[in-house]
Amino acid sequence: MQENYPIPPEFAVRSRVIVTIIDIAFGGEGVARLNDFVIFIPFVLVGEEVDVEITELKKRFARARLLAVIRPSPDRVDPLCPYFGECGGCQYQHMAYPMQLTVKHKQISDLFERVGGFERAAIRPVVPCPQPYYYRNRIMIRSQWDKFKQGLNIGFIRNDNRLVVDIEECKISEPEINRQILHVRQNPPPKGGIKVVLRVPPPGWEVPRDSFFQNNFFLLSKLVAAVRECIEESKFEYLLDVYCGVGFFGIEAADLVKAFVGIELDRLAIRSAQRNASERGIKNGEFIDARVEEALPALLLRYPANRSAVLIDPPRTGAPPEALELLRTVRPTRIIYVSCHPATLARDLNILCQNAVYELVRLTPLDMFPQTQHIECVADLRLRQSDDSGNPPA
User: Fold this and answer.
1) 234 located within any domain
2) Nearest Cα to 19, choosing from 77, 71, 94, 85?
3) What is the CATH number of the domain that holds 13?
4) Which of 88, 111, 288, 299 has its CA at a distance of 20 to 30 angstroms from the CA of residue 66?
C-alpha cells in the first residue's frame, strides 16, 4: 500500500517554497521532495534549486509553477522558441540536447524496470536526431476566438490549460511547415474551433492526406536500420507487418524475407501501400485492408509460426488485448514492436513476456521528437527456447 505523507503545514495553493530538483519524471516534470512530500515542477533540471508557487495540492503530491531558478544546472540552455513555457508542444528546450538524451534513457529504463521488471541492460542508448530543431514534417494547429483581443488565436494548446497560444513560427517544425503556418495566418479559418493539419509529403512515398507517416525524416534511416537489424539477425522467412500504414516497414525490409503481408484498416493507406510497392518493384508482398484482430488469426495459420515474425506498429493506445493473446498463443518466432508511446509499449511487452513466453532482447530508443517528452522505441522480442522436455514455455 502506498504511504500517504502529511502535507507540510506551509503548503497551500499559491504559497511559495524553495526546493531542489532530484529527478525528471516521465512526461517532463521535475521532481522535488519536501519532508517526503512530492512536488512536480515543469521546465527544471536535476540539481537545480528553484523558487516555485504551488498551483495544485493533492493528498500525495503537489504541482507548482517555476518562479525563478536560484541555482541553475550547467545543462540549462536558453530556449530557441519565444513561446516555450507557454506553448504545450515542447518540454525540454531549456535542456542541453545531450542531457535530453540522458534523461530520456533514464526515464525509459525506469519505466520498463518498474512495469515489467525488464533488465536495464536491454535498453540501448538513445539514438540522437541529427537535427534537434526544424525537424517535424507534420503538425496540427488550432484556431480559437480570443474575446479580449476580438480576434483568432492560431497555434497550439497551452501547457497549463486548454487555451490556444497564438504563434507565428514553430521552432521544431520544418521551414516548409512554417511557411504553411504563415499562409494559414494570412488566410485564417472563418471561426474558432477549426483544426488545420500542415504536412510536408515524404519524398518518394505516396501518403493520403489523413494517413500516418513518421514525423521526422531526419532520423528515418536510423529507424529503418533498427528494424532491419532485428530481421537480419533472425532466420525467419515471413513477415507480418501489422498496422502497416502505407507499407513503409514491410517495403523497407522486403529484401530480407521470402514474403510479407501488410495489414491496415485505412483503405486509402492500403491502396497507397500497393502503389508504393509497385513503384519500387517489390513483388513479394501483399497488403490487406482489414481490422488487425480479424485478419491476424488466419495469417498466423497461413504462415508457420516457427518461420514467421510479426512487426507491430500500433496507435499510441497500443495493441488490443485480443491481438496480444493471439500472439502469445500462436507464438511467432520474433515480434518487433515499434511504438511512440513507451508507457503502452511497456504494458504490452509485459503481457507478451508473461510466463516467460517471450524475452526482450533489446530496446532501441530513437529521439524522433527532440525538445519534447516523446520518443520512438523499437523492441526486439524473441520466443524463448523450449525446456528440456521439448515443450515451449507455458
Assistant:
1) yes
2) 71
3) 2.40.50.140
4) 111
Say if 90 falls within a structural domain.
no
In this structure, the answer to whether residues 143 and 219 fall within a common structural domain is no
**Would residue 298 count as lying in a domain?**
yes
Residue 93 lies in a domain: no
Question: Do 116 and 261 fall within a single domain?
Answer: yes
The verdict on 107 and 47 lying in the same domain is no
Residue that is written with C-alpha cell 501547457 in the block: 159
Q: Is 94 helix (H, G, I), strand (E, B) or coil?
A: coil
Q: Helix (H, G, I), strand (E, B), or coil: what is residue 218?
A: helix
Q: Residue 327: give its domain's CATH number.
A: 3.40.50.150
- What pTM, to 2 d.p., does this model score? 0.92
| Cell numbers describing residue 125 | 542508448
Tens digit of pLDDT at every position of the chain (394 positions): 445 556 666 678 889 999 999 999 998 999 999 888 999 999 999 999 999 999 999 888 999 999 999 999 999 999 999 999 999 999 999 999 999 999 999 999 999 999 989 999 999 999 999 999 999 999 999 999 999 899 999 999 999 888 999 999 999 999 999 999 999 999 999 999 999 999 999 999 999 988 999 999 999 999 999 999 999 988 789 999 999 999 999 999 999 999 999 999 999 999 999 999 999 999 999 999 999 888 988 998 899 999 999 999 999 999 999 999 999 999 999 999 999 999 999 999 999 999 999 999 999 999 999 999 999 999 999 998 753 333 444 4
Domain of 144 in residue numbering reads as 138-199
Q: Is 79 helix (H, G, I), strand (E, B) or coil?
A: coil
Q: Measured over all CA atoms, what is the biggest interatomic distance in the chain, rounded to whole angstroms?
A: 76
- For the chain, what is the domain count? 3
AA letter at 267: R
